[in-house]
Amino acid sequence: RGFGQRGDGDTSEWLTAKEELLKKLEDKLKYVERWQSDVEALEARLNATVDELRGQKAEVEKLNKENEGLKTRLHAAEKEIDGLKRDSGAHRVAFSASLSNFGEIYKGPCTDKTLIFKRIFSNVGDGYDESTGVFTAPVDGLYYFSFNTYGYNTHVMGAMLFKNGIRQISTYDFPSVDGSDSSSNSVVLQLAAGDKLHMELWDDGRVFDNLNGHTTFSGFLVFPLSK
After folding, report:
1. Which of 68, 90, 112 is the last residue of a domain?
2. Alpha-carbon torsion (51, 53, 55, 58), positive or negative
3. pLDDT tens across 104-138, in order?
4. Are residues 137 and 115 in the same domain?
5. Same domain assignment for residues 2 and 83
6. CA angle at residue 101 from 100 to 102, to 5 degrees?
7. What's the total number of domains in the chain?
8. Which residues does the UniProt record annotate as the domain C1q (predicted)?
9. 3-state DSSP call for residue 192?
10. In terms of domains, do 98 and 72 share one?
11. Burial level of 208, CB count in 10 A (0-12/13-18/19+)?
């Protein structure tokens, strides 16, 4: 009997120890489960962060490509602007002159019919030669020219614009009962560098000028043309 009582006591203690052990294991299992849940939540957040970072990386790469494209266009625009600046600086051509630089001049009729405009109002680019009356195109381009002629009724009044010796346009008025006549004309010509233009009287023609600038010749480069 005594032995049986001791056995009962040992069994009771063993069961108690097992119960305590099971409780500890259950507590640890709950802790592990909570920890696993936290890990899963953390993993989900990390995955979301990775996805967000990937999206941001893709956006950055897209922005970098767009930036490179902008840099390329900006560089091209800067080159174009530099070219326009060089063109505007190197190709400034304009002149305007009248026939008389002092007193009164009756020009014609004469054998040398070339009109030499002596009174220079402007000659940017030095295209016009006041000693010969010839304008020489410094660059390829489109040029605008205009002239005005004035004369009296005793002779044919008017003049012709020549390009490289070939007549282009003219003014003309035959003798009439009018006391005087005035006329003008203009043209846009495509010129190559080195082309020459000048004004000539008609046969038996005459023009008049004084410091009022009745008979004039003007021109300027509209824009250069690339070859």
Report:
1. 90
2. negative
3. 999 999 999 999 999 999 999 999 999 999 999 99
4. yes
5. yes
6. 90
7. 2
8. 88-227
9. coil
10. no
11. buried
Could you give the residue ranges of the DSSP H alpha helices within the chain? 2-90
In a shared domain, residues 152 and 211 = yes
* 217 neighbors 127 (Cβ within 8 angstroms): no
Other C-beta atoms closer than 10 Å to the C-beta of 135 total 27
Q: Is 53 exposed, middle or buried (0-12, 13-18, 19+ CB in 10 A)?
A: exposed
| 128 and 191, same domain (yes or no) | yes
Mean pLDDT over 201-225 rounds to 97
- How many CB atoms are closer than 10 A to CB 191? 23
Domain interval for residue 84: 1-90
- Banded pLDDT at 202 (limits 50, 70, 90): very high
Q: Which two tokens stand for residue 165?
A: 């010796």
Asked which of 41, 74, 90 is the last residue of a domain, the reply is 90
Q: Which two tokens stand for residue 226?
A: 């690339």
